Amino acid sequence: MTKDRARLHPLSSLPAFDQATGDLSVVIETPKDSPNKYDYDPGCGAFRLAGVLPHGQYFPYDFGFVPSTLADDGDPLDVLLLLDVSVPVGCVLSARLIGVIEAKQRENRQGWVRNDRLLAVATRAHTHQHVRSLGDLEPKLMDEIEAFFVNYNRAKGKEFKPVKRAGPKPAAKLVQHGMKAFKRKRSRNG
């Protein structure tokens, strides 16, 4: 991404962590309870409708990305955000990492690609204020979140396989790795 583009479209280049608080920055692409999936397009600085879920399916929590990161699939790191009520598309907020669903994904029987899902709690959340790690959540909730991602990807013609669940420290390492990958790509592109 060129320096001019980064200035024009700041959502993709916001800091991954707030330097003052250490909180994770999250850009919401798809609000909780939405049957529509939105993706941020840094090329035009807007959100595009990426798809519609099958009838009766909706996002269980707000879903977005961590800016200034790059995952193995070529997109910013994905994050599912626990918050009291949904926020609008494009909202930027701070969050506390609580863990990650390490997963792999493939399309059309091609090779597997790592496509993890970070889990975080909004810093200003009341309902989930006590949650510091995945162990603080009901195990059934984690099963339901994983099932959502499996079914969501199946509807798109992709396979999604959760590999394991990990806590906040491995999740933070993934963010650090994603930040380094983003910087490498940015420096290659000028």
Q: What is the fold's blueprint, element by element?
A:
Elements: H1 3-8, E1 24-30, E2 36-41, E3 46-52, E4 62-65, E5 78-82, E6 92-107, E7 113-114, E8 117-122, H2 139-155, E9 158-166, H3 168-188
Parallel strand pairs: 5-8
Antiparallel strand pairs: 1-4, 1-6, 2-3, 4-5, 6-7, 6-8, 6-9
Number of domains: 1
CATH topology: Inorganic Pyrophosphatase
Instruction: Write down the CATH class.
Output: Alpha Beta
CATH homologous superfamily annotation: Inorganic pyrophosphatase
Distance between the termini: 7 Å
Shape: globular
| Helicity level | 10-25%
Number of strands: 9
Descriptive account of the structure:
This protein is of the alpha+beta class. The chain has a single domain, classed as Inorganic Pyrophosphatase, CATH 3.90.80.10. The protein has three helices and nine strands. The protein has helices spanning 3-8, 139-155, 168-188, and strands at 24-30, 36-41, 46-52, 62-65, 78-82, 92-107, 113-114, 117-122, 158-166. The strands form two sheets. Strands 1-4-5-8-6 form a five-stranded mixed beta barrel. Strands 2-3 form a two-stranded antiparallel sheet. The longest helix has 21 residues, at 168-188. The model is unreliable at 1-8 (pLDDT under 50).
